[in-house]
Design brief:
There is one protein chain. This protein is mostly helical and 130 residues long. Among the domains are: 26-69; 79-124. Helix content is 71%, strand content 0%. It has three helices and no strands. The chain has helices at 28-77, 81-101, 105-125. Helix 1 packs parallel to helix 3 (105-125) and helix 2 runs antiparallel to helix 3 (105-125). The longest helix has 50 residues, at 28-77. It is elongated, with a radius of gyration of 30 Å.
Amino acid sequence: MSIDVQTQPGISTAEAPALKEGEESRSPVGVVRDRAATIAARVPAVADSVRREATDRVPGAAETVWQGAVGSRRSILAMPAETQRMVAAFSVGLGLGLSIAGAPRIVVAAALAPAVIVGTDILARGAPSA
């Protein structure tokens, strides 16, 4: 039993170039193996390019994240105490729910950030006097 394998999309084996004497027909596995080797050979260059691009962008991204965190902290601390407590409670609930659901740690940490901000503010102010 023979299988008619196309060598290129749209070209039937009848239109494909004839094999030279001594050449074997390339199997689909051989084609895939060759393509995988070509891709594997390109991986180091692509990885180096990504590393250089990330190195160039990380300082700017870190500064943007820091500015966003400072602005968020100011916004939360400008809220009334009751609203801060509600934000903290919601944040803890959301963080726990995401954690139980198996969300990535970075997502859980982001959900808990408002609770951390409110908690550190409460600790910084000290316990209310009776």
